[in-house]
Every structure is written in C-alpha cells, then in structure tokens.
Design goal:
The complex is a heterodimer of chains A (452) and B (89). With 452 residues, chain A is α/β, with parallel strands linked by helices. Chain A folds into two domains: 166 residues, Anaerobic Ribonucleotide-triphosphate Reductase Large Chain, CATH 3.20.70; 227 residues, Anaerobic Ribonucleotide-triphosphate Reductase Large Chain, CATH 3.20.70. Chain A is 43% helix and 17% strand. With 89 residues, chain B is α+β, with helices and mostly antiparallel strands. Chain B is built from three helices and four strands. Classes of the chains: A alpha/beta (452), B alpha+beta (89).
Chain lengths: 452, 89
C-alpha cells in the first residue's frame, strides 16, 4: 500500500499549493502542408491540425479527472509559419494566422503557437513578410501566438531583425490598445529559441522534430514555497536539497501525464519542460520562493543568487524524474503573472535592470513586463539587444515579452485578466540608443560558439 | 486498474459505511482501508479495484463527490499511479 503521508502530501499539494500541469502541448509539423497557393496551404493546415489534435482536449481532461491533477491549458505548436509563407506568392499571409485561430477554436485549445520566424543569421524568403504581418495577425486573432528568434550563440545577433522587432512589438500593442495591448503579450522575441518548448507565447514545432509529438510543461512554485516554509532553520545546502526533492515530485507528475497522453493519443512523447511557471494566484509565485529563502522582498540584493540556486536545483531534481527533459526548463520570472513579482514591482524593489540581471541565471528572460506606452521602438530594440546578448554569451535561451501600455505611464496599471495577470507600468532607463540599434548588421557570434 | 479514495473532513457517523456502499453499488472492490481520527478530523484512505466498475471513472468520481457533500467531507478518487510516480523512484 502507498503510504498515507505520501497520499496526503500529494492531495495537499494539489488542493492548497496550486500543483498543476500547466500545459499539454501537441507539436504538429506543417511541412507537408506547404503549397504555393495560400488557400490550398491553409486548407491543408486546418485539416491536418484538426485531424491530429481532435482528441487532445478530451484526452487531457480525462487524464486530469482520473489522476486528480488539474491540467490548466491544452495547446498546439506548429512549424514556424515563415517556412510556409516563403513559397506563397502573396503578401496577405495573415490568412495563415486566421486559419490557425479557426483550428484552435474548433478544437477548444487555449493557444496555438508558431506564427514564427527564425532569423538569427538573416532573413530567408518569407521571413520578412511574416514578421511585418505579426501586429495585424495578433490583432485579428485570439489564440495565435507569435515568436521571432533574432539571435543565437552559434550565429550571433541579427541587428536588422532587432531593429525591426522594436517596431513590431510597439505596433502589436498599438493595434490592440483597446484590448489591454494584448497583441504584445502574445509575441516573444528570442535568442537561442528552443524547438520543443510547450510554453506560450514562444512555442513552435521545430524542423528537427517528429511529425507530431506531445510535450508537457509542469508548474508548482506554490509547492516549492510551501516546502521551504517548513524548513526555517536549514542552511543554503539544505534549501537546495529541498528544492531538488520537490522538483523531482513535480516533474514525476508531469512525466506521468506526458506518458499517459502520449499513449492515449498514439503520439510520441517529446519532452517534459520542468519549468516553475507561476500564476497570479496568491501563493503560486516564484518571487515568494525567493522571499521564503530569506529575502525581504524580491528584487533586493541577493535576489540573483537566490534565483540561480533555485533554477539549478529545479533542474537537478527534475532531470532524474523524466526520461526526456527539454523546452525551457528552469524558473520563469514573468512579472504580471506572479503575485510576488507584481508586489515587488509596485513597491519599487524590482525594476527592469534587476530583472535583466536575474535573466542571466534563470530559464528565460524579460517576461510580461509592462512598460510606458510612449516607449520608442528603438528603446524596445535596445532592450531586445541587451537581453539577446545575455543569451548569446551564456549559451542559454533569453526572451523579451514586454507590453508597451499605450496611453499609460509609469506607475499606472494594466490588467490582462486570467493567467496573464496584471502589472504596474515599469519605467525604462533614460538615454537614447537609436544610433546603436539602427546601424544594422550582425553582432558576430562569440568565442563560446567555436566548440568544434 | 486501482484507485485511491481519500476522505478528509470532520468525523461523523457512517462515513465508512456510506463510502463502502457507493463502492458496493458500483462493483468497486475495496482492497485495503486505513483510517485515523485526529481530534475531530477524519482521514480515511481506501485502495480499491475499479476494473469491474459499472461506471466510467468520471461518473464514479461524481458519485463520491455527491456522497462527500452529503456528509460534509471531501472525497478524492485518484488513479494510484499518481502516488507511485511521485513518491517512489
């Protein structure tokens, strides 16, 4: 018989500490839907997605009910659409976005990602048109998410793309200004994007992936925090051990769901992404974990070290719990989606420069940060360049998902609702980087790239 | 397939009887039961075999929900693999 304390611990984690599986994401390759006629391509895309994912939502709900584990989102990731756009003889490629949105609505999934382009070394045919269409695509759809990879350790940083993305992020916010600038919240700019990420807005199905695959993203900051709250007198080694043990349990649950979903849908299991993904619910916060370690408020000196410890311990605990770990796998620090980060940002303890430092040691980057609506595209480009440089040099994924709050200024608040949460408008640094970011060209790949 | 039924809440007369009755009505075989009462709080854990259950998992789970609400306790029905996965290497 299973031990009573273990059963009660699991139930307590789910009932009181917000343990859940954040997402079951089905990756679907659209390479066989390529057609020079965009109408035919869209028909093939719609048919293929609906055929492959027809049982996704129902299967995830059944697993959720049988195992008693909440599965919050069901999502789909597809081949970067720029690859399909490259062969179409039309500029009206937002039709792809509408098709993805229609399929997502038909299937009842929460998000569909892959309105993406990979341009870290340059623009291929289709990339430029796709990127230009992102603001409109995000404004006319509800569930489509977009990402653009503008740099990598191997390729360096494409500064032409960086310059372009500053404008695209701003436009995405402007076009959806009547809907809390939601367009910008569905767009992420990556350096070192991963091909099997189940989390939005950055999920896409990489070209090296199988035809169809199931990836699972876990959650569980509340569980880690609760475990730490019971360990008030252990030293830092003890803290790391406790995080590892908790991450192991969380990831095992994700592995179970991934294996079961893969079996029931007859689709290969891809990876478990063992990220700690917070939600705006009180208690389900990465910032509160850092505070539980002994910081008065997230953002004070010591925060980067605490986050580095957390990120590393989560990976060490999680990696043994799953047969395949992948995706972003670490701790997320989205501001508007994390009650503790929101409080820290409101109090002024957490600012954009501290967040930037934190992204050097955690899994992604500047995420869900609301900035003043009058921010210039050039400043956004410069923020992207800074963040990409951290990713490029440290051989890790970094990303920028910032939301220019059109019509609002520093200190105001923007509320998205739901999982995206709400956040104070955070000031950005003074000074004009226009000349630097409009030079164009590429930042050469660093020495770290030369590993052969 | 085996499931774990967990009953948590304030102790009242007839909890075990009622939960067992739902099991019996639906051809769910009780394999093992442990229970403890700490002060007024009641915790009972049942390992059951549901392979011959008359009802699919969701509906069976709903039956226990209703029974739990009637008695003012919280009843969870979960596949045993979740506990094995999380707590055993």
């Amino acid at each position: 018989m299973i031990e009573t304390k273990d059963i009660l611990e699991t139930i307590n984690m789910i009932e009181n500490e917000h343990l859940d599986v954040r997402t079951v994401t089905m990756g679907i390759s659209l390479l066989d839907c390529i057609d020079s006629d965009i109408d035919k391509a869209c028909d093939k895309i719609y048919d293929k997605i609906c055929r492959y994912a027809k049982d996704l939502v129902k299967t995830a709900e059944n697993i959720s009910s049988e195992y008693g584990i909440p599965i919050i989102n069901k999502r789909i990731a597809v081949t970067p659409i720029a690859m399909l756009a490259s062969v179409c003889q039309t500029q009206k490629i937002t039709k792809f976005a509408k098709t993805l949105d229609k399929a997502a609505n038909e299937l009842g999934v929460d998000f569909i990602g892959g309105y993406s382009a990979l341009v870290e070394k340059g623009f291929a045919s289709g990339d430029y048109a796709l990127i230009e269409s992102i603001p409109e695509a995000l404004s006319i759809t509800d569930k489509v998410c977009s990402s653009v990879n503008i740099g990598s350790t191997k390729a360096g940083i494409n500064m032409d793309a960086v310059k372009m993305m500053g404008k695209i992020v701003k436009e995405s916010a402007v076009l959806t200004a009547d809907r809390q600038c939601i367009g910008a919240a569905k767009l992420v700019v990556f350096c070192n994007a991963v091909q099997d990420n189940p989390f939005m807005a950055g999920a896409f199905h990489g070209v090296g992936e199988a035809d169809c695959v199931i990836n699972v993203g876990v959650s569980g900051p509340g569980v880690v925090r609760a475990a730490l709250s019971k360990a008030t007198d252990c030293d830092i080694t003890g803290v790391a051990d406790l995080v590892k043990k908790t991450a192991f349990k969380i990831t095992r649950m994700g592995q179970l769901v991934a294996r079961e979903a893969s079996k029931r849908l007859s689709v290969p299991f891809g990876i478990v992404d063992l990220s700690l993904a917070p939600t705006p619910a009180v208690g389900d916060s990465v910032a509160y974990i850092l505070e539980e370690m002994g910081l008065e408020v997230c953002g004070c000196h010591g925060t980067t070290a605490a986050l580095a410890l957390l990120n590393d311990a989560v990976k060490k605990g999680g990696v043994m719990a799953s047969s395949h770990v992948g995706g972003l796998s670490g701790a997320f620090i989205p501001v508007s989606e994390d009650a503790g980060m929101i409080n820290a940002a409101k109090s002024g303890a957490l600012d954009i420069t501290k967040l930037e430092a934190m992204t050097a040691v955690c899994s992604v980057g500047l995420d869900m940060i609301v900035v003043p609506g009058d921010i210039t595209p050039e400043t956004i480009s410069a923020i992207i360049a800074d963040e990409a440089a951290i990713g490029m040099v440290n051989t890790k994924t970094t990303a920028v998902r910032i939301i220019p709050a059109i019509g609002l200024k520093a200190g105001d608040e923007l509320n998205f609702g739901g999982l995206l949460g709400y956040g104070p408008v955070m000031p950005v640094r003074y000074g004009d980087p226009t000349k630097f970011v409009t030079r164009g060209g590429r930042i050469p790949a660093p020495l770290q790239a030369l590993k052969n | 397939m085996k499931a774990v039924i967990t009953v948590l809440g304030k102790d009242t007369v007839g909890i075990l009887a009622k939960v067992s009755a739902v099991c019996a009505d639906n051809d769910v075989n009780v394999i093992e039961v442990t229970q403890s009462v700490m002060q007024d709080m009641f915790a009972m854990i049942m390992l059951v075999d549901i392979k011959s259950s008359k009802l699919p998992f969701n509906e069976l789970s709903n039956k226990f929900d209703i029974a739990g609400n009637e008695m003012g306790v919280k009843i969870h029905v979960m596949h045993e693999d979740i506990f094995n996965s999380m707590h055993k290497i």
